[in-house]
Amino acid sequence: MFKVLVVEDDGNLRKLMSAALKQNGYEPFTAEDGEAALDLLEKTSIDIVISDIMMPNMDGYELTTSLRRANFEMPILLVTAKESFEDKQRGFMLGVDDYMVKPIDVNEMILRVGALLRRAKMASEHSLVVGNCVLDYDAQSVRFGAAQAETIPQKEFLLLFKLLSYPNKIFTRRQLLDELWGMESEVDERTVDVHIKRLRERYNSNPNFEIITVRGLGYKAVKLV
Amino acid sequence: MFKVLVVEDDGNLRKLMSAALKQNGYEPFTAEDGEAALDLLEKTSIDIVISDIMMPNMDGYELTTSLRRANFEMPILLVTAKESFEDKQRGFMLGVDDYMVKPIDVNEMILRVGALLRRAKMASEHSLVVGNCVLDYDAQSVRFGAAQAETIPQKEFLLLFKLLSYPNKIFTRRQLLDELWGMESEVDERTVDVHIKRLRERYNSNPNFEIITVRGLGYKAVKLV
DNA sequence: TAGTTTGTTTACATAAAGTTCACAATTAAA
DNA sequence: TTTAATTGTGAACTTTATGTAAACAAACTA
To answer: A144 pLDDT exceeds 60?
Structure first.
């Protein structure tokens, strides 16, 4: 389910938008202003941001700038009170993807969100999200929240990716060797243990997942979120 | 230079749009209706399509459907006579990326085209700005702030330009060889390393970007601004 | 509880990948 | 034509990843 962050200081409108999103199969999150939004974005992996421009503390433009600067690449849809060319120009320069003019037509909003997500999906396909942790298959990297993505050794990555792709599913060492090392691999089963150990060392204190030993059978990953 | 296809039966409007596009650094192509557009799309690699909805022979919706069915994935921007929700809904369903309502504001059109192209990740201009650093493709030069622009060796320039055109995207050595040296080049992959080394030597202490090695995969550029 | 099985951890050897250097070949400039 | 700049190569070197073996620890079993 796609996570949509609605940033809007008007409580009624916020509720209205949330409701419409929920009704259309999205998972809405809300924030009252840019600062609250940034906080939330650190913790949660939001797929698309819909933000009002005029807000207390931090307005829509500042929010956009902050996000792009922090290398967040999700689509941003700004809501403007008046249809002004200068505003739009400024927004597009900063990295805004689309505009809506108030009063908002929630049906149109749903359509635009869909179009933006569809377009954005093309960009990075092979990725896996667990809480605020994102595994990028192509970059062989792991990122937590807004932190810098870290590329990790291939075997470790594949192992983690496989386990997290099927949370709670138990994999035997043999299965993992067959799938990640190749059927004919002559590698010792203990090798899996060693890589598990390395992964645990790397991500021991993260709050998103844990690799569990299932004695006599193998290993599994569980989500903690 | 980006190729924009304008599909519009009104000759005057077509000219107006073409002119505006050309003036803003795009290469405009035109077609009078959907069928003519399809013909042209077969022959030319168009980056983005702007199409009127109401046209003889094949309208904007049919054109969209045909394109998506043929796996063309460029952004499509439809121009509608009236702002009707049903129309928009239909369009977004079919795979339209954005709408503009007539009468067209050409400035807004340029902005929307820019935003769509940026989102489509095709972004690549004739000059590229990273922080206070400017790469000029035509002059094959790099300039920092107000300093004198410095022309650098071609291979180094192309390499840097390519990497910075898609920040954070990882390129394999093979990809870079194919794209910068040509598909059939017999050059050793190590050669890329050598050029990377030279670039790093040249720009090691600049605060705008950095070339990162992604072990096992290739190289990527990251913006530090 | 002692012994057995299974899983964890460590240190190390080897392989794989990336960097650097000196130089030769090529191209462009003076 | 001479000189300088650019580009590619191969080998030495550095760093990182991976697998093995053995010691250690925990869990099960009789």
So the answer is: yes
**3-state percent helix, strand, coil for chain B, nearest multiple of 5:** 40, 25, 35
Q: Is the CB of B127 under 7 A from strand C?
A: no
Rounded Cα distance between B177 and B186, Å, is 9
The three-point CA angle B177-B183-B188 to 5° equals 40
Helix, strand, coil shares, percent, chain A, to 5: 45, 25, 35
Q: Confirm whether any atom of chain C, the nucleic acid strand, is less than 7 Å from CB of A217.
A: yes
pLDDT band at residue A105 using 50, 70 and 90 as cut-offs: confident
Please list the ranges in chain B whose pLDDT falls under 50: 122-124
Going by pLDDT thresholds of 50, 70 and 90, the confidence category of residue A217 is very high
Alpha-carbon distance B103 to nearest alpha carbon in chain A (angstroms) = 14
| Contact status, residue A66 vs residue A41, Cβ threshold 8 Å | no
Q: Smallest Cβ distance to A92: which of B85, B115, B121?
A: B115
Neighbours of A28 (CB within 10 A): 20
Q: What pLDDT is recorded for position B138?
A: 75
Residues A89 and B111 sit within 8 Å (Cβ to Cβ) = yes
Provide, as residue numbers in chain B, all residues whose Cβ is less than 8 Å from the Cβ of A76. none
Separation in Å: C12 C1' and A205 CA: 28
HSE-up of B165 (CA within 13 Å, CB side)? Answer: 18
Q: Which residues of B touch A107 (CB under 8 A)?
A: 85, 89
pLDDT at B120: 62
A188 CB closer than 7 A to any strand C atom = no
Q: Which residue has the tokens 């960009």?
A: A123
How many Å apart are CA A8 and CA B92, to the nearest integer? Answer: 25
- With vertex at residue A169, the alpha carbon angle to CA A167 and CA A170, rounded to the nearest 5 degrees, is 130
Domains of chain B in sequence order = 3-123 (3.40.50.2300), 125-223 (1.10.10.10)
* Cβ within 8 Å, pair B217-A115: no
Inspect the interface and report whether the beta carbons of B85 and A95 lie closer than 8 Å. Answer: no
> How do residues A107-134 score in pLDDT, each as one tens digit?
788 878 877 776 665 444 467 888 878 8
Chain A hits for B115, CB-CB cut-off 8 Å, are 92, 96-98
Half-sphere exposure of A184 (CA within 13 A, CB side): 0
Q: Is the CB of B182 under 7 A from strand D?
A: no
Average pLDDT over residues A16-31: 84
* pLDDT higher than threshold 70 for residue A28: yes
Question: Which amino acid, residue B125?
Answer: E
